[in-house]
Automatic annotation (TrEMBL):
Pfam families: dCache_1, HAMP, HATPase_c, His_kinase. It comes from the Bacteria. It is a multi-pass membrane protein. The chain crosses the membrane at residues 300-324. It is found in: Cell membrane. The lineage of its organism: Bacteria, Bacillati, Bacillota, Bacilli, Bacillales. Residues 322-374 form the HAMP domain. GO terms for molecular function: phosphorelay sensor kinase activity. It comes from Paenibacillus monticola. Keywords: Cell membrane, Kinase, Membrane, Phosphoprotein, Transferase, Transmembrane, Transmembrane helix. This is HAMP domain-containing protein. One of its GO terms (cellular component) is plasma membrane. InterPro entries: Bact_2-comp_sensor_kinase (IPR050640), dCache_1 (IPR033479), HAMP_dom (IPR003660), HATPase_C_sf (IPR036890), HATPase_dom (IPR003594), Sig_transdc_His_kin_internal (IPR010559).
Amino acid sequence: MKTSYRFHLRSFGLKQKALVIFLIFVILPTFGVGVVVQYKFNQILRDQFINSTNRNLDNVTNQLGEQTKMVEDIANYLILDPDMRAFLRTYPLLNSVQKSNLKRNIEDFLTFQLMSKGYIRAIEISGYNGNSIEMGEPFSGNEETLERRAIERKGGIYWTEGYELNSDWNGEVRILSLFRVLNSYDEITKPLGRLIVRLDEASIINLLEKGSFKDNAGSVFIVGPEGQVILGSKHNMPEDFKPDAALLSKLVSSKSNFVTYPVEGKRYLTLYKGMENTGWKVIAMIPEAKVDEEFRDVKIIMVVILTAILLLGLTALFGFHYTIIRPILRLKKETNRVANGDFNARVPVDSYDEISELNRKFNEMVFTIKQLIDHKYKLELRERESELKLMQNQMDPHFLYNTLDMIRWTARLEKASKSSQLIEMLSKFFRSSVNNGSYQTKLSKELEFAQSYLFLQQHRLGDKLKYSLYMEADIMDALILKTTIQPLVENFIKHGLDRKKGINEIKVRGYTSADEIWIDVIDNGKGMDPAREDEVRSSLQSGEKGGNREGAMININDRLSIFFGQGYGLEIINTSAKGTWVRLKLPCTKAESLGGEQHEQ
């Protein structure tokens, strides 16, 4: 099975392998991680929502606790207030002035409470001695049952459930009230009167809803110690729903203070907080659908991000195909062309990455192979041409060398030293001009060839010709092609001599520049006019042969560039009526075994 798997994988092309790798290592992991992240993220969002709602519910429960505690503190203060005890006493009776003063003091206190606590709608005090105070909004209605329950508390605080009363100002309204029998401070069991503090139910519900939810997203209930519903809002809830004992039992037994509770087929996230001073439980219920809706945008963003990642992965696959696989396949196709002998194969290079660098090197390699094939033929052809031109009208080299040596020794025997020296230089010149199995030589040998030619020409021209040869010692063994410097010197003698000048001078200087060898041939001859200069430069660039002078320079340039490569060859630095400056550029290459100049001495 394993062998079969390897066989099928090896038989895949680059496209198939890239697709399989992308599917296994990108698509499937991205999708799997996306699903896990989405699930975990939903849990985190739900937990954050529950924690946030818990904090909000805790805050509003504390606020409601503070409000109810302040109302209870008012009731406790009124019991201990001397003015209130005096106002409600049955004996001794109060005169009108005393009664008016006490009533004004109590009303001032109650006015402050009504003005500072907006949730209190009215405060009513009724004494069994017939004295009474009513502050705030006037209400009317049957509250006898509530009064009886308060009396049963025997001075304890009794919080009513929400109920309706008729307001002289606003008609039917729902309120929540505190009832308390005010007992005598001296005789604790003796009732003196009754206190009623009426709170605005809508204000309390608004406090709970706005503090716990956004945009009435849920419902809130206050359940008393005996399980009775004190008040509640029923947004998104059935009209007849009330928190029952089963829900309260689940909430009390829950360790996390929240449960999921079903109501008529819908599930509600239910949280609660207790109030110590009243014994109430504040219950908040939010539909699960609202919780999901709360984070719908975030979930959509997560889905969009996951989709974007997959799209980016697909884009990466296409990019990988077009930037890596496709160039490799194209390179393979062009390699097959080269293998079949087509050296015109080229791969386009349109960037600077590693693939393009590989394509560039491939193009250079094919070009170099083609160039080597072409240049080898051209170089041998040019060397044959040069040798044939130099050997035209000449006798057999060995016979010529031996004859010249014989004449030189005869001149010495006859004590004709100058004639002997001239014959020796002529012998060196002919010996250096012939390619004896090699067209390469040392720079020192080529310089000696040019020197022998100039020596003979100076004896011919006399004082009209002056020359100097200079070469750095480090480059004397450098590699150069034969008959490279001498033809330039010969060009000057044949075409550049200015008869109007008393002395015609030519200089040959060889030195290193960076990693190249530069050989400058400078004369003070006639130079070239601008038209001829343009023609020569154009011929050097195109390689087309011109006249004798241009043909020699083109021949040298072609041979050097063919042998050493592009960037090497002949360059015209300057030419004018004051002379010409030509430069040869060679690489710093040391000549090794080059073949000899074998002949009989």
